[in-house]
Amino acid sequence: MCGIVGYVGARDINAVILAGLWKLEYRGYDSSGIATIYDGEIRIKRAIGKLKVLADVLDKEPLKGNIGIGHTRWATHGEPSEENAHPQLDCSDSIAVVHNGIIENYINLKEKLIAEHHIFRSFTDTEVIPHTIEKYYTDSLENAVIKAMNEIEGSYAFAVISTKEPNKIVCCKKNTPLVIGVGEKDNIVASDILAIVGLTRKIIYLEDNEICTLTKDSVKITDRNSNEIKRKTVYLNGKVLEADKGGFSHFMLKEIYEQPKVIHETIEKRLQSGELFKPFPLSIKDSELVKLSRILIQACGTSWHAGHVGKYIIESLCRIHTEVDISSEFRYRNPVTSGETLVIAISQSGETADTLAGIREAKLAFLKVLSIVNVAGSTIARESNDIINIDAGPEIGVASTKAYTGQLFALYLFALYFSRLKWITKDDDLALMLKEVREIPSKMQMILDRASQVEEIARKFHQSSNFIFLGRGINYPSALEGALKLKEVSYIHATGYPAGEMKHGPIALVDKNLPIVCIIPKSNIYEKMFSNIEEVKARGGQIIAVATEGDKKIKELTENIFYIPECSEILSPLLVALPLQLLAYYISTLRGLDVDKPRNLAKSVTVE
Ligand code: AGP
Which domains occur in the chain, in start order? Predict the structure, then answer.
């Protein structure tokens, strides 16, 4: 969840490391720091708060040196403070470490190191790393790092510099991403390619249990027995450079507005011929697909909500039993893995620790894993048997928006292809559905063109302290997603419910102060949903409705209505998502909050 950058070369060390950290700030932003080696000493600056604070410090007093490491933190052990910020140091201030991940046995290690007279100055788990390296540092930094890796348990990626060998950065990883950028006369290491592409597009993805040494002229990778590993560099092309706000006030708003384009581009790429061919280049054979008896979707957060919608889509279009699990539950619940089962993992970042662990569990049970990701070179992409890349471009706002609808769209295309393969959806129906699919981008645009109506609703309700979101059927997960979006960026307590469940408990919460967002597009359960809304209305609840254009009846229940264009029920989650995202966005900004970097969150959750 933290971001690491290390650089060795002749460019301005402050500028290069800060530029990398700005790109990684989405991974954590409660404190940050940078250490260089200059004149035989570690020079260090650390600051609490967003990266801007560190940038201001460095602006006034830049660090010198041709080698350095930097870090932006999302606290796991020890509150955000200067002494808990990284880099962390050994006793003699000659070894500096930046770390992303969790050292699970740090308490034991710390006790032993204290007994051996090491002096600790922070409450972090990370600090055991420089002290353990210090303990084992006899001949080379690489060997000391390997010995430290043998002692520490957990997930980690870390980078180390030492005044004893002032020309090298040594880094390593286990279950947490680390990417090397190979430059001309300089080299860089970072948690994510975003921090590297400004400098070079020649990339090496470090694998678990590998150790990499970077000097300005060389990159050397070894295993934990010090055997050298030859790895080819990959040349990056594509959308990695798009991470700017493009004139919008926030990344979240920009990314909400990018949704028609993302879906349009996918249609252009995947449905060009008018025929539904295998929509993604999957290695899984059609003969294997038709034999499947079960699909098991596992994901976290918003991606889990996409998976939930996926269950409705796949069960309805393909008539195949589909389960959806939260990855952190899936990985420990010893799931039944018999039968012809395909595991689908969904992850925007492709780095989510729990989802990755779920994939590994599935593979141990010899199940095939198809992952839906937004980052092609991510760990999840590399470890899966097959991937569908949603190609939404970098999503920087912590709250997932365009990646969510991109994930939904990937699930639609997959299910439509699969359904056709099984001869469940007939050609004529398929043609009608594809026609409607092609209209989605323009319908999304119609919604965005009326964003000010959502803003008006947000103005009425932004001071409320609780919200309920209700939906039914395929829009029950839309309600969950609407509630998650709101709580993430506005810190308002919000909960999503299947509307039919209200009378079994939650209706007790309803009073005149409670806004209830009701997702009621045209559907075969419209009347049921309508009665559920009447029930909450009768208890004084304030209704905000997301309904279909032309629905006059809903006016009987509320004047706070946002209309989405007409579309078939099965595709409606793609449209419903947008007003809910806008509602969360406007409420957050009206409350004066940092919508792109909400408190306590990070974009890429690489810890358990
Ligand atoms: C989404 O708004 C959240 N920030 C979060 O729930 C996210 O979806 C979750 O952490 C999973 O991330 P992933 O898609 O990168 O795996």
Answer: 2-236 (3.60.20.10), 244-445 (3.40.50.10490), 450-593 (3.40.50.10490)
